[in-house]
Amino acid sequence: MADDKNLDLFKEVREADRKALSLGRKLRVGFIGTGGIAHSHMRAYKQFDDIEVVAGADLIPGRAAAFFKEFGVEAADYTDYKKMIAECRLDAVSVCTYNRQHAGPACYALEHGLSVLLEKPFSVTLDEAAGICRAEKASGKILSIGFQPRFDPNMQMIGKIFRSGELGRIYYIQTGGGRRRGIPCSGGKDSFIREDTAGIGAVGDIGCYSLDMVLNALGYPKPVTVSGYMSDFFGKDPGYSGYKGNGAVMSEKFGVDDFAAAFIRFETGLVVDFRISWAMNMDTSGDTIVLGTKGGLRIPSTECWNGTVGGPMTVYKEVAGEQTETVLPVLEIKGLGRIEQKVRSFCDAAIGNILGDPDAKSPVPSSQIIVNQAIIDGIVRSARLGREVEIVIPEL
Asked: Which of 57, 251, 269, 282 could hold 238 in an S-S bridge, CB 3.0 to 4.6 Å?
């Protein structure tokens, strides 16, 4: 009970801090892209009285207007995000476009003095990610990447376990995630599966989360090489059950990966055995298994990646010559949900940036996620070449 009271007190103090940093007006936010993921952003923004969504741009005529009408928001709608930025007084934008349109709008917004909440994956290529990072550095604005699993207390517990030293030196990790049937194409939507819009499939869509789960907990060690594999057997199959009678059309459009695997080596000597799936003939690609010199950790897999763990985690150790297992109960989220925290933390950083607060930092910094992108880029290159490749993090 005392802990709950302390938590409530912390929330009250945090709200007071937010009001103390008030701009004297609402933070003015725009959308670039108003498709699927934008809905979760809007639901979050609408929870906060100090945030005002004032505009949105989408390539499809009428889509932004319909989006605002759905949420009962009065805002200007555009088909050209550059025109929106020129005509509207904005402080920040949510970039919720398809993958291949992440880099251009993010760079343009940063170059025009706006903070950016950029949905995952960071980009399609490492060169694009580096370009975004350079635009961020030149702008002095906030860039945060949409990795909401970081705000889950169970994900944060993984980091605490790693940093505690209880596992000793971590030398091997098996991680990933898998859907038995889960290619994202509901309602005939194809932007996730086309090469010209998505660029990358499962490896970027949910693979970026799986990598971040363990690499963020480790402080993002430097990767040096990767041997990758990618396939598209299910997506190219007209009989794939997920297409629900539209297989001939959807399979012809499919141009990305539906499964990927990799063996990644790091400068520290760590190796990561990674696999990710949108579709496969198996119920799971396996739990995440962390092997250390003093202990091990099992993180149960989820049926479909949802930003948390699939059940209680278990720590394996030897104590006084006896093999022991410690089961850690699943932690519940209290207060704001993962997505709401993703949006709130970005807005707080954007407000602090405007006010010149030196402590205003990105909650999910590009300096970390570019390493994530470098690994994904390496997996793609290795799979295409059929051999191991070097991973080089670009100078920024």
From this structure: 251
Contact in structure between 261 and 228 (CB atoms under 8 Å): yes
Q: How far apart are CA 60 and CA 367, in angstroms?
A: 33
How many structural domains comprise the chain? 2
Yes or no: say if 265 and 226 are a contact pair by the CB < 8 Å rule.
yes
Residue 387 covered by a domain: no
Q: Which residues, including other chains, have CB under 8 Å from residue 193's CB and lie 6 or more apart?
A: 183, 184, 185, 201, 235, 250, 253, 254, 255, 256
Largest CA distance in the chain: 70
Strand partners, 92: 29, 115
Closest CA to 379 of 220, 244, 211, 214: 211
Do residues 311 and 172 share a domain? yes
Q: Which residues pair with 316 in a beta bridge?
A: 296, 325
pLDDT in tens, 279-337: 999 999 999 999 999 999 999 999 877 789 999 999 999 999 999 999 999 999 999 99
- The single-letter DSSP state of residue 172 is E
Among residues 245, 250, 253, 251, which one has the least CA distance to residue 233?
Answer: 251
188 secondary structure, DSSP code = G
pLDDT tens figures, 135-170: 999 999 999 999 999 999 999 999 999 999 999 999
For residue 169, give the CATH number of its domain: 3.30.360.10
DSSP codes of every residue in 88-122: S--SEEEE---GGGSHHHHHHHHHTT-EEEEESSS
Could you tell me if 25 and 163 lie in one domain?
no
Count the Cβ atoms, other than its own, within 10 Å of residue 17.
10
Taking the C-alpha atoms of residue 93 and residue 141, their distance in angstroms, rounded to an integer, is 12
